Amino acid sequence: TNASSQAVPRPPPTPSPLRYSKFSQAKLRILVTGGAGFIGSHLVDRLMESGNNEVIVADNFFTGSKDNLRKWIGHPNFELIRHDVTETLLVEVDQIYHLACPASPIFYKYNPVKTIKTNVIGTLNMLGLAKRVGARILLTSTSEVYGDPLEHPQKEEYWGNVNPIGVRSCYDEGKRVAETLMFDYHRQHGLEIRIARIFNTYGPRMNIDDGRVVSNFIAQALRGEELTVQAPGTQTRSFCYVSDMVDGLIRLMEGENTGPINLGNPGEFTMLELAEAVKELIEPSAQLKITENTPDDPRMRKPDITKAKTLLGWEPKVSLREGLPRMAEDFRLRLNVPKK
Ligand code: NAD
Ligand code: UDP
Ligand code: UDP
């Protein structure tokens, strides 16, 4: 028989090395897409500070900024590429943290078609890259995949309640397709994947005017403006401080579980309670103003983090009362508001 005419069985996928890079013996090469953004830049700090990594950031600077990475520019283990993930990217890396995507409602609704392209084509490209170089890839998905949830708190098994044609769908449904693509590349091509479902995260370096509730309230408090509580104000969110989030993302990447795994702080607050906390901790003279809400606003959200606790040994350490003043310090400096 002619061996070459027979179907050649596909070799099993080679596990991507965690301790040793394929490309340079000493350090892992890590790509962070969206690394110039809020969570991404804190992740880059941690990866660079470990001293064991080479970090490449690919970002189109839509909502991110070079400023967030200032301290690493020029460092021999760091590289920043202006790149849109909807275009092909050729780099050689061991791990990919795929964060690129606007996360604040006002930015993801600004150009919804682009948001979908970023989630779908962008994730497809990063998966094609991971496949070509044998890299492990982590997607930052979102609690928004649960939509306006009918189960509370949300477990990973819950399939969600998402409006497919609403104004938030470019983001929610985009992330849902991104998760599907991750699992199809995993099943079809043997890729090593990790999926984090991130719940509302806050901290220093958030865009001051990006419209999210914590950044709005803190900026308003410092500027002496009214805190805009969107009606009815009884809707809830659970807020995770960014250092806890970064810790969870790294544990997920380094661990053995594909996920999806919820990462978030289970402390749940109504928006009125959040406004009261900002008032108490940051500006006691602040006034609250009830304003109109946006369509499809989820009424409640709180992660069940049993999986993260048992599989990753992770849980948040920073409470809202500790985190808000730290973020306010950063905003004070950036807004040039003197301490009282
Ligand atoms: P961010 O807007 O600060 O960061 C996103 C980064 O991606 C920015 O630097 C932006 O310039 C970049 N980007 C956007 N589109 C791009 C594209 N097409 N090509 C290349 N770069 C692009 O937001 P963040 O809060 O840091 O969020 C990071 C990730 O975490 C996102 O994937 C987001 O969906 C996810 N997430 C965040 C939260 C949260 O509360 N912050 C909650 C759930 C999920
Ligand atoms: N891709 C990329 N970088 C790579 C390899 C692939 O950006 O190093 C992109 C490529 O442009 C393609 C996508 O990833 O559109 C999916 O690649 P894959 O090989 O899975 O699919 P195919 O190219 O066969 O459609
Ligand atoms: N929100 C608010 N005031 C603001 C901005 C937002 O009360 O100035 C509310 C909004 O209605 C929602 C919650 O805060 O119920 C969280 O909104 P955000 O845009 O921060 O995040 P997401 O809706 O994506 O969770």
Map the helices and strands.
Elements: E1 28-33, H1 38-49, E2 53-59, E3 78-82, E4 95-98, H2 105-110, H3 112-133, E5 136-142, H4 169-189, E6 193-198, E7 201-202, H5 213-223, E8 227-230, E9 236-238, E10 240-241, H6 242-254, E11 261-263, E12 268-270, H7 271-281, E13 288-291, H8 306-312, H9 320-335
Helix pairs in contact: 1-6, 3-4, 5-7, 5-9
The chain binds nicotinamide-adenine-dinucleotide (NAD) and uridine-5'-diphosphate (2 copies).
One uridine-5'-diphosphate is lined by residues 88-90, 124-125, 128-129, 131-132.
Give a verbal description of the structure.
The chain is α/β, with parallel strands linked by helices. It is 35% helix and 16% strand. The chain has helices at 38-49, 105-110, 112-133, 169-189, 213-223, 242-254, 271-281, 306-312, 320-335, and strands at 28-33, 53-59, 78-82, 95-98, 136-142, 193-198, 201-202, 227-230, 236-238, 240-241, 261-263, 268-270, 288-291. The strands form 4 sheets. The chain has a 7-stranded parallel beta sheet, sandwiched between helices. Strands 7-10 form a two-stranded parallel ribbon. The longest helix is centred in the middle third of the chain and has 22 residues, at 112-133. It is globular, with a radius of gyration of 21 Å. The termini are far apart. Bound molecules: nicotinamide-adenine-dinucleotide and uridine-5'-diphosphate (UDP) (2 copies). Residues 33-34, 36-40, 59-64, 84-86, 99-103, 118, 122, 140, 142, 198, 200-201 line the site of nicotinamide-adenine-dinucleotide. It holds the Pfam family GDP_Man_Dehyd.
